[in-house]
Amino acid sequence: MDHMDPSPKAEDLAPFGFDQGWADDGSSGVVEVAYHADVAAKHAASTATHATLLAQWVQHLWGKHEELQSKVKELEDWKKRTLEDMRKLREEHKQLRRRFGGADDKEDFATGVKKAVTAPVSSTAAASDGAFNGPPGLTMLDMPAGEAMAIEDGENDGENRKTENEGVSVKECLVDGAGCEKAEWRIGSLSVKLRGCMGRALVSPPFSAWGMEDLRLMIYPDQKESATGPRSRRQKDLYNKKVSDGPLDGCLKLKVPNCPAPHVLKYYLTVGSSETNRKGPFEHNFSECTVSDPAEFDIDWLSVVDADGGLSVSVDIMKMADP
Question: Considering only CA atoms, which of 97, 200, 236 is closest in space to residue 153?
């Protein structure tokens, strides 16, 4: 019986690039080494192919990124144009109210009631002409011709909050024998509204007194102003507990954006219906700052709310001295 020679033959090693000298050394591991080298070469080729595909995907994603960046820029441009259009509409609305408002308009300011008015013709025409387009990628909803639009007048001060059209009543009265105009703001469900403000000011609807317009009362639920309100969950929980269960040590301010010369007003501020919680007189130069210093009352505001959870705050504005 012939014995098989385990040594690799030259023809067996030829595919791996070995010559006769390697076949003659009788090394049994040469074939295995050559096999693994061939497998490694194939893996290297496969890795190169995957790297090429990955590079193509990176290029594709980069193109998508550039496309999205372009859309973001379009949206930002649209936002700027829309804000400018809204500013023009507010200015146009103010001019129309001054021109056609009359006595009824002043009375509405005094009671703090905002009416829905018909959109100005020029604004409606502009909308129909496509001047006010929706955001890029979205279609603007059509509005029936002649539909009433509620256009809210006034500046957005950042701290302003919706007050559900709760009115401010203005009437003449006497304080220490002197004539004044008293503006009283009735706030329903005080705790609920303060929770909605989350630390920022609760601001009244605009009212008028002594010929001055756009006056406002501002309630801060703490003795310090807060531009951002509570941030963390613990701060929010503590704030909600304070405005719901007390003690609530708030402060009250008066805002007068257009105070005529000599620009100094003398006034009293009251929290609740009792005159025992009236503070003043205060004097403030509203040409230097349109918002007065905070008036503190050293009481728990929740102790003076009524049975429905509402509260009234008021300001008694004395007649301004002649310039």
Answer: 97
